[in-house]
Design goal:
mainly alpha, two-stranded antiparallel sheet, two-stranded antiparallel ribbon, 22 helices, 4% strand
Length: 544
């Protein structure tokens, strides 16, 4: 906890300085200390993304970024802003920060932490954005802007990868400064994302901030649209947010296309990043095929698409069985999955219906536009892959809009306090959730509290791997473990190696001496087939 606290102070100081710098260039867009920090994340995230095309996000990038932030923080005496909080607000923030730091100190338990987040950050810090990286490991083609920001601060300022904990603290500051007390209720729920650099947290938090700004009368469309596109670039499942701001600029304010230019440039940066790493404009979709030479193998993409449909039904049905579903079967089976996911799916549909009725009754233009935007996003999710993790943000948005004017500070504080206590108990004694909610699969990977967390956050170390060679590619595979979170790169997950054997292909470096130049896939010749077969034989023996 204490080391995360030190890291948080360091990062917040840096980001406040960058936020002030952005204000000097573009003017004030968000108020208060939290506004400067959020704008700092926004500006540094964009700068790191551009830089990562050229060089790795190592200390040579991080140190100048920290120095610039510190320079503006002390030069403009921004530390004085922290003395403006009242005693009561300071107590609330102190309690929030303590709970957040405590929660963030636990072992990561989201599986994507090991198979996606950490490997992505390792590649970014050692090489930057790598052309065609999805040919090595398809999931790495995402390269979220949030992970780019995390990678840029992971060498020195935040080696524990706790940027999400910092964001939650900043979110608490924003709630207090904006007096939007209803949002206090969200923080206990969002604590489940505090141990890992999950992009789900920033898209939920940033979406709620944008909504609150709109409902509070912020008319800076240029910034709000750019920031909503930035949020979309973190995770495209939040596509409803830029759609909403676009509709808001057309139907509520006086439309001016010039206000959309900055956001459009960010969108082009997002598209360029995806084409560079994945070969297509939006991961994992294969629409708008530009004929890029380093795009992934079409059979692997087809298999990935099929698996996404299987995941829609929580792997309780095979792809062949799903193909035989009628539309009625599709809906019925999705709503009646075993375990808690059916409850989430039913609640999702129920919430949408309630929100649509609510927007009709209210006859408020802003609420109607939010409803339209959320409905568009929901339809897209239901069509492509209706996994709950793709629509979880909808619950927060609907709750916020419906109860925006009705929940007072006292009630919000009481509800939030109760929920935070419940979450702290669950984190400390995970066997409770494992016993009473066994269908909550993530709960199985939670570990109980350890005394060492008071100083140092808990983290796993494995560092067991084997090295192999197929064609011109020398690579590493984690020993008896499916993920490569601390395996030296280039590393390939075991499952992908079996997929490559099935398709008789394998990734190869474009330049044997410079991995930064990227990867392509190629059909295996006779000698390479033998190398791959031998590699798989050795991997199978290692599991015995």
């Amino acid at each position: 906890m204490l080391l995360i606290l030190c890291s948080s102070i360091f990062l917040i100081t840096t980001l406040v300085g960058w936020g002030k710098l952005l204000e000097n260039v573009f003017g004030k867009s968000l108020n208060g200390v939290s506004g400067k920090i959020v704008m700092g994340m926004f500006s540094v995230g964009l700068i790191f993304t551009v830089v990562s095309f050229l060089i790795p996000l190592n200390l040579y990038v991080e140190i100048p970024a920290i120095l610039i932030g510190f320079l503006y923080f002390f030069k403009d005496k921004l530390y004085l802003d922290f003395y403006k909080f009242s005693k009561k607000d300071s107590i609330i923030l102190g309690i929030l920060a303590t709970v957040i730091l405590f929660s963030a100190s636990f072992y990561p338990f989201i599986l994507d932490h090991f198979g996606y987040y950490v490997p992505t950050i390792k590649w970014l810090t050692e090489y930057g954005l790598v052309k065609g990286i999805s040919n090595l490991d398809l999931i790495l083609g995402q390269m979220s802007v949030w992970h780019i920001l995390q990678a840029g601060f992971s060498n020195f300022a935040d080696p524990f990868l706790k940027l999400n904990a910092v964001l939650l603290i900043v979110y608490g500051i924003y709630i207090v400064e904006s007096k939007s007390w209803i949002q206090l209720i969200f923080i206990p729920v969002l604590l489940i994302f505090s141990q890992s650099p999950s992009p789900d947290l920033p898209v939920i938090v940033f979406s709620l901030i944008v909504l609150n700004e709109i409902l509070s009368g912020n008319k800076n469309i240029s910034f709000l649209f750019a920031f909503s596109v930035f949020t979309f670039a973190i995770k495209p499942t939040v596509i409803w947010l830029p759609i909403f701001i676009l509709l808001y600029s057309i139907y509520i304010t006086k439309f001016d296309y010039k206000k959309l230019i900055f956001g459009s440039l960010i969108f082009l940066l997002f598209i360029s990043k995806n084409i560079w790493t994945f070969g297509y404009p939006v991961f994992p979709l294969t629409v708008f095929d530009l004929g890029i030479s380093w795009k992934p193998n079409p059979e692997l993409l087809k298999a990935s698409s099929e698996f996404a449909i299987v995941k829609t039904f929580d792997e309780q049905y095979s792809y062949a069985e799903i193909l035989k579903f009628s539309w009625f079967d599709y809906v019925k089976n999705w709503l009646s999955l075993k375990g808690m996911k059916s409850m989430i799916n039913i609640l999702f549909i129920f919430s949408l219906i309630v929100f649509i009725i609510f927007s009709i009754i209210k006859k408020n233009k802003i609420i109607s536009l939010i409803c339209i935007s959320i409905s568009i996003k929901s339809i897209l999710v239901l069509l492509f892959s209706a996994q709950y993790r793709f629509f979880i943000d909808v619950f927060f948005v609907i709750f916020f809009i419906v109860f925006f004017k009705y929940l007072k500070k006292k009630n919000a504080v009481l509800i939030s306090s109760f929920l935070m206590f419940a979450v702290v108990v669950i984190f400390s004694f995970p066997n409770l959730i494992q016993k009473f909610i066994p269908s909550f699969q993530v709960g199985r990977f939670m570990a109980p509290f350890e005394k060492k967390q008071i100083l140092n956050p808990s983290h796993y170390q494995y560092n067991q791997y084997h090295s192999y060679k197929v064609g011109n590619l020398k690579f590493n595979v984690s020993k008896k473990y499916p993920f490569n979170f601390d395996t030296p790169i280039p590393a390939i997950s075991v499952n992908y190696i079996f997929d490559y054997q099935k398709e008789q292909i394998f990734p190869q470096p474009i330049d044997n001496n410079h991995l930064k130049k990227g990867f392509i896939w190629k059909k295996l010749n006779a000698e390479e087939k033998k190398e791959l077969d031998k590699t798989i034989e050795l991997i199978k023996k290692s599991y015995q």
